Prior knowledge:
By secondary structure, the protein is mainly α. The protein has ten helices and no strands. It has a single domain, classed as MetI-like fold. About 75% of the residues lie in helices and about 0% in strands.
Amino acid sequence: MRALGTAILVLVVVAALGARALPFDPVQLDLSQALDPPTWSHPLGTDELGRDLLTRIVYGARTSLGIALGAVCLAALAGASFGLLSGYVGGRVDVAVMQAVNVVLSFPAVLMALLLVALVGQGVTNLMVAIGLQAVPGYIRLVRGLVLSVRGHEYVEAARAVGCRPVRIATLHIVPNVLGPMAVQSTFLVAAAVQLTSGLSFLGIGVPPPTPEWGAILAGGRNYLNIAPHITLAPGVVLLAVLLALNLLGDTLRDALDPRTRA
């Protein structure tokens, strides 16, 4: 099952990277072919504006996965920095950071993303920043907990006793112990970010049209479920498969990086 998940991700990534090789334009309209069912020339049919559905799904992979990966990288960088600072320095810094985290976590993720998008406006970059910012508190809590656990180990105390600087201790002894759990967390957060990106676009406040994105494609086909269900079915199956594959990848990384599982 996990091998299947990896194969799905590889296929989607390769298709997204090679999207320009497809013969159709993802945004060019052809109303004479609107709502056409799957044919040899259009393997997944066309949407309500006559655009090739396969092309839009493949280009949508670039949009959805690009936003999700960018958001997770932003969240990981900011969350790791504040989490390391909070856990290693402690004291008032720790209290201030964790109070801010608790306030942000009191808002549901979707509501926080909606608020941020409303403040900064629509667009791929803005959506990436909004999704990334709402994921920062989760990273902060994860990294802080790991730092608090690691900094009490004997080798850290020994390094401190021989006069190692805090930056050297953090770089050589603490950060390497944080990277593994962060990688696992990032995999699951990419899945959550893809889902949130598609959800916001489905509601009409995510990626602006005519940019192809899985949630926007789903939204465009919801009014034609009775006469053209392929418009909704195709991107829905792809989205479901990618989310499943990402979660399976996270499970694989967790098992590979957990020494207890290896033992």
